Amino acid sequence: MNLEKIIPKDGPSIYEVEKYIKKYSKEIIVIKCGGSVLLNKNLFNQFVEDIAVINKLDLSAIVVHGGGKNIKLKLDKLNLESKFINGLRITDEKIIKVVEEALIELNFEILSKINNDQDRAISITPKKNNVIKVKKESEELGFVGSPKEINREILLKIITERKVPIMVPMGIGDDQKVYNINADTAAGAVAKELNARRLLLMTDVEGVLENNELISEINSNIANKMLEEGVISGGMIPKINTCLDAVNNGVTGVVIVDGRRPHSILFELFSDKGAGTLIRK
Question: pTM (2 decimals)?
Fold first, then answer.
């Protein structure tokens, strides 16, 4: 394997990559991407390149992508106003159609970019290869659900074929209708079901901060203490809860990764320094 041809010039050093490849062989890496990565052309291209690199290194990755900003742009165009309860969008029949359309468009964009030179990725949407059975969150939220069952066989088959599943965070309810799922929650459910070695949650922040300093690693006891003391607050609370749920249910480590940093996925997986905050049990 010629690493010099595979690893981008502005990525981690070949020496470090060699050191970490063995660690992840025969393991599963689940990557959730959202925020700036999906809107900024440069970051998007680097994200896609990172996924292709992982695939070329013969490692197994599953991608779950959000698309909140994409959805908002579409809803604004149609003058459809969104209301939220605890950060979850109230989703009626009109809105779920727009959400699905926006996410599938994005899914196709990621897919065609990765498959530019080779057939490396496979699309997972509610209508095609659906893997998530959904439990409805509540009547007032409408078509919003949480994963109650993951079809691991479909995902493992794709991985065994050395391809990358690119998942829309949606699933099918008992009523056979399409439901939207928080992308972090969907990625966490997949990582737990497959006992992933790593779950990477790409965000628009450096990671977990204390006094404006990045904390490179914490365990679940420290994370819980930081939640209690309010050191972790706002939008970071549900992310940390997803991390804690994952590490307490079979995922070796979860990383909150700064997606604004060039090649953040490669630096997180294949360098000593990482690119965010690692949370272990």
Answer: 0.95
